[in-house]
Structure formats: structure tokens, C-alpha cells
């Protein structure tokens, strides 16, 4: 048994694309060299689905996370915005566990919360089912 992460992008028109994790990593490091012309000018939904794999066959979804990607008119991912949103998401999660400090006037800085919210989304039931089916190999989708 092992765990694998499957990454999917959902275009504005609802098309589901599978994106290799290695390619996504390269896109984050060097966006100009790895454009996505099919998604140019869109704010794309992304799903990371962690699946349990037995004998190289995915058997169940263990965890799902959802994020947003901004892609410019040339098809390049805005990696700095994505990174900022991911750090804000981590900061928000840690703030629930750690003591949140308040300023002297009782105001809490919620900047990270707003940045994190702008980089996340929740799928509808039918879209969640389609993503799960694709992650488990029951639904074929295009690869980027």
C-alpha cells in the first residue's frame, strides 16, 4: 500500500484535465517555460487528490484539497500568487492551533484569512464525484 497525489485542473467550461505533479512543479519554478495555452486567461480550479494505491491500482481517496490558479493571457501560471495563497492557508490553519495575538486596540489581523479564501474553492457534489472517479481511474480525462 502507498499513497499517490493526483492533480487535476478544471477549466472555465468544466473540462477536467489531469496534470502530472512533476510538470506542475516545473510550472511553479519556471512559468514562462511551461505555459498552458488551453487555459490562457483563466482563473482555474485545481484539485489535489490523495489516493491509496495497492499493487499499482488506486483503491480509495484519502484526502482532497482544492485551490485556485491564475493563468495569464500567455498561459503562464502566476506562481507567486499561488505560493502566497498556500502560505496564507498554512498560516490560517496554524492560527487555529496557536495563540492569535491581538493588537493593543483589540483588532486581529485577518489578512492571511482573506488571501487564503481567495485561493480556495469547494466543488459541487457532481464535480467532486467526477474528480474522484478520475483519480481512481474510473473516468478518463485529458492530460496536460
Features:
4 helices; 5 strands; globular; 144 residues
Broad shape: globular
How many distinct beta strands?
5
Beta-sheet strand percentage? Answer: 25-35%
Helical proportion?
Answer: 25-40%
The biggest beta sheet, please? 5 strands, mixed
Strand order of the largest sheet: 4-3-1-2-5
- What number of domains? 1
Straight-line N-to-C gap: 27 Å
Calculate the mean pLDDT score and round it.
85
Q: Nearest-angstrom radius of gyration?
A: 17 Å
Helices and strands in order:
Layout: E1 2-10, E2 16-19, H1 21-29, E3 43-54, E4 57-70, H2 79-97, H3 111-118, H4 125-135, E5 142-143
Parallel strand pairs: 2-5
Antiparallel strand pairs: 1-2, 1-3, 3-4
Helix pairs in contact: 2-3
Question: If you had to describe this structure to a student in words, what would you say it looks like?
Answer:
The protein has four helices and five strands. The chain has 144 residues and is an alpha+beta fold. It has one domain (2-143). The protein has a five-stranded mixed sheet, sandwiched between helices. The longest helix has 19 residues, at 79-97. It is globular, with a radius of gyration of 17 Å. The mean pLDDT is 85.
